[in-house]
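User: Okay, second chain of the day. Same drill as before: sequence in, structure tokens out.
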Amino acid sequence: MRTSILRRFARTPIRQVAFTDLLEPIEEYRRSASGESRPVIVGYRKREIPLVKRIDHCYVNFYEYIARKGNPSVMVCGRSGMGKSELMNVLLLSAKEPKIVFSFKPNDAYLRLPCQVIDVSKHIPDPFQDADAFSIAYTLAFPANVRGITFSQVRAIVKSVARESKNWSEFRDNLKRTEKKATDIQKEALALIQAQIGGLVVGEGSFSMDLAKDMVLDFSYLDESAKTFYAEIALRQIWSSLTGRLGAQEKRRTLIVIDEVHRLTQLYEMEARTIVDTLMRQVRQFGALYTATQNYSDIPDALRNQFATQLTFNTTSERDLEAIRKIDSA
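Assistant: Same drill. Structure tokens below.
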């Protein structure tokens, strides 16, 4: 809807016009890229005004609005097909920083960005560099099967075995050796691990990132559990590279974009803290974090609070509406 229409009909004109002004640059960006102009209402007549000459005292450039904030991180929520990826693409095309995008769906809109696309199934991050990261990524990849006693047993065993392994072959051999002196509960956990790692063994580590270039990491060719596992591992390695530049002369900022971020935040309340938690709190020193997910309530409240800009598409989810009402009852 046009701002002029909202001014005339909105019950709460200030709030609704503000939201419209922030979203209007999306349409404007698309049209200006193709050199189009659009009708602008002046009195009761319509006339065509080139976008580059359009002047509106309420107009706000959305990307500049975000960049001016002390906290430039953005969260976008909306059901499948509502346009989250398209909205994010518009923001990314406006961004000046190098971008690293985590994409999980085949034929995703992110894959059409003018960026280098890396098939993660062929360039696997090495999960054996850090045993603690391995155990957390493993727990995030298999959340439904690691509850109760098994949860602590699986994490402890996975971390211990990963510390002694350099590749998946050694990991399997070490699991078998561990089984010989395991208790009954540990044997149950070991059997579960043996059954689960099949989908994670997809190749050897050959993952490297140039933080000065725009790129999309395509996880769509991996199994669902492997997508989450290697996304956490890759994100930790990227974060390690970013923080390693602190003492360097280089001051380049990086924009990290994570689609389907709920994959990594679903066990936040348990003892499996994804590196996303650290990114949300500290990324301002190194750039910005943009995330997308289907439901507003997919991201725990403590993490949502780290985003200064939160965009939510129309929702009928009771949990989402309740979370939003706590911010504004209207």
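The chain is about 40% helix and 15% strand.

User: Thanks, on to the next one.
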